[in-house]
């Protein structure tokens, strides 16, 4: 009897099984790894009197970002004045204008931001009243006492500020507090 050899057809079935096995392993790995790699939700629940800074109009965001940047300089000036032992421990509006701090300096930017009339109140509070309606706001109140970030309040109607400013009085008058929220893109910038 002649020698017989069985020859299997080369149709790729064996390689196909290896590829299917590799795909199954990848899916199993993804099933395990993806939940582990998820970031925690940073959604902040806002109170009724709060508004996110990124929900403001473009001009309002410009004003808020300028106040946030100028806050650093205001707080540094406060520390310097405090160390010098001067009577006023917070810089005046005139000092802020002399330092060309936006939005306090009366320049073209100031005109574009509703020509705000600024007043320096006691204890690191600054109030601004809009003289033109470009910002859809009537007043802004900035509390610079916090070292990390200013507390900014906005109001759509002109209000007489109480002599002893506190959050409860501002809430009763209908002020909105601006909340700074770090976006996903900002949190993961490299």
From TrEMBL:
Transmembrane segments: 18-37
Domain of life: Bacteria
Cited InterPro entries: DUF6162
Keywords: Membrane, Transmembrane, Transmembrane helix
Cited Pfam families: DUF6162
UniProt keyword Transmembrane helix present: yes
Protein name listed in UniProt: Uncharacterized protein
């Amino acid at each position: 009897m002649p020698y017989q050899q069985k020859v299997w057809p080369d149709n790729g079935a064996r390689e196909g099984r290896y590829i299917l096995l590799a795909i199954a392993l990848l899916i199993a790995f993804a099933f395990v790894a993806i939940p582990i790699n998820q970031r925690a939700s940073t959604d902040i629940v806002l109170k009724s009197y709060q508004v996110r800074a990124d929900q403001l109009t473009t001009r309002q965001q410009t004003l808020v970002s300028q106040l946030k940047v100028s806050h650093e300089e205001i707080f540094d000036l406060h520390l310097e004045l405090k160390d010098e032992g001067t009577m006023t421990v917070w810089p005046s509006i005139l000092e802020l204008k002399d330092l060309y701090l936006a939005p306090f300096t009366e320049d073209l930017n100031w005109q574009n931001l509703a020509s705000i009339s600024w007043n320096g109140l006691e204890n690191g509070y600054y109030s601004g009243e809009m003289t033109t309606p470009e910002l859809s706001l009537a007043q802004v109140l900035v509390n610079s006492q916090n070292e990390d970030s200013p507390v900014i309040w906005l109001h759509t109607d002109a209000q007489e500020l109480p002599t002893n400013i506190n959050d409860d009085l501002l809430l009763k008058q209908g002020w909105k507090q601006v909340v700074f929220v770090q976006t996903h893109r900002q949190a993961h910038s490299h």
